[in-house]
Amino acid sequence: MVSGKGGTGKTSFTACMATLFKKKVLADCDVDAANLNLLLNADVVEEHNFVSGHKAAINRDICISCGGCREVCRYQAISEDYRVDGFSCEGCGACFYRCPAGAVTFAKALCGHFFVGKTKKQEYAVFAELLPGAENSGKLVTAVRKKALEIALEKGSKIILTDGPPGIGCTVIASLTGASFVVFVTEPTVSGVHDLKRVMELSRHFKLPGAVVINKSDLNRSYSNEIVFLCLERGFNLLGSIPYEPLVSQAQRQAKTILEYAPDCAASNAIRQIHRKLNRRLETL
Amino acid sequence: MKVVIASGKGGTGKTTVAVNLAWFLANCGRKVQYIDCDVEEPNGNFFISAHFSKRISAFVMLPVVDQQKCTSCGECSAKCRFNAIVRLPGNTMIFPELCHGCGLCLLVCPAKAISEDEREIGIIESGMGWGGISFVHGVLNIGEPMPKPLIRKVKEQGLSDHIQIIDAPPGTSCSFVETISDADLVILVTEPTPFGLHDLKISEEVARARGKSIRVVINKDNGTFRPLEKFLEDRRLKITARLPENRKVAEVYSKGDILLEELPDYREHFSSIAAEVFRQSENLEHSPNGVLP
Question: CA angle, B170 as apex, A3 and A41 as ends, to 5°?
Answer without folding.
Answer: 75
